[in-house]
Amino acid sequence: MQTEWLFLGTGAADWPALEPDTPFPQPDTYRRNASLLVDGHILIDGGPFVLESLRAFGLDPAAITDVFITHSHDDHYVPEVITALAAFARPAPLQLWYPSEAPLMLTEYAGLVLHPMLPGDQAHTGGFCVEALASNHHLSDSRETPLFYIFESAGGRWLYATDGSSLPVSSWKRLLLGVPLDAAIIEMTFGDVYDVPYLLEHNTLPIVREVVRIMRGNGVLKPGAPLYLTHLASMTHLPPAQFAPKALAEGWIAAVDGLQATISPLGADS
Ligand SMILES: [Zn+2]
Ligand SMILES: [Zn+2]
Questions:
Q1: 20 to 30 A from 213, CA-CA: which of 22, 34, 110, 226?
Q2: How close is the Cα of 204 to the center of ligand 2, in Å?
Q3: Domain ranges of the chain
Q4: For residue 230, which ligand has an atom nearest its CA?
């Protein structure tokens, strides 16, 4: 068994919108807001460009059964996008999983089922058990706790960790006590910088280096488990084509828009 990922977007919030009719994807030079499609039917985050991305990749929005929202910043969640997605005819209503207390600006109706999530909650859907973890990120004027998610199925166990810097201790303990991961996707909003104002709510290259070293050293990641980077800002990173080899030199894969990856359970001694 395996899990298929398609990175619909790998950028942070600062990438400018493309002019209409610009060919897409342009993985060497451009990133759309971070979003991942899992096994063709589970979407993680629904930012402003998700419907365009699905169209650009020739994917049917009606195939989406579930959307998991990490937090309500508008590069990750746009209510009109979810409403448009829910409007496509599908056998069962669209399931929306989101941080409890997020200012959703949506109500449940026949085409949409709402599932608020708190850290520690689990969603059982589409053959996956999805556990929510608190992330270390900032939302002004909200009681919302932004979330990372651990996805587990017969196709492997993996972490989706954006947005947030490093991990809160509660989430770190959960990962330490849990079954080791077969793969992880971690944000690296900023590169090798120290002079941007949002450092302690997003990762930098040195923070990712340390987090991954600690994860591998404590068996949170299985030996050989791949580490993918997403949510990269335009203002502090090299263009995608130039950043990819720099990430590879660290042992990481810098995801680009349109990247497909196959994840499967790693053996105990792989
Ligand atoms: Zn973001
Ligand atoms: Zn954010």
A1: 34
A2: 14
A3: 3-16+31-255
A4: 1
How remote is the CA of residue 47 from the centroid of ligand 2, in Å?
Answer: 11
Q: Hey, what CATH class is 3-16+31-255 in?
A: alpha beta
Distance separating alpha carbons of residues 57 and 6, to the nearest angstrom: 10
How far from 204 is each of 163, 174, 246, CA to CA, in Å? 12, 23, 14
CA of 76, nearest ligand number: 1
Expressed in angstroms and rounded, the spacing between residue 163 Cα and the centre of ligand 1 is: 6
User: What is the whole-number distance in angstroms between the Cα of residue 14 and the centre of ligand 1?
Assistant: 9
Span 164-202, pLDDT tens digits: 999 999 999 999 999 999 999 999 999 888 777 777 899
Residue 25 — pLDDT band, cuts 50, 70, 90?
low
Among 246, 183, 239, 233, smallest CA distance to 212 is for 183
Q: How far is it, in rounded angstroms, from Cα 103 to Cα 91?
A: 28
What per-residue confidence (pLDDT) applies to 56?
Answer: 87
Q: How far is the CA of 13 from the centre of ligand 1 (A)?
A: 5
Q: How far is the CA of 91 from the centre of ligand 2 (A)?
A: 32
Single pTM value for the model: 0.96
Q: Which 3 state secondary structure label does DSSP give 123?
A: strand
Report the percentage of the chain scoring pLDDT > 90.
84
Coil, helix or strand at residue 187: strand
Q: Report the separation in Å between the CA atom of 269 and the middle of ligand 1, taken as the mean of its atom positions.
A: 35
Residue 268 has pLDDT above 70, yes or no: no
Measured in Å, residue 253 CA sits from the centre of ligand 2 at 22
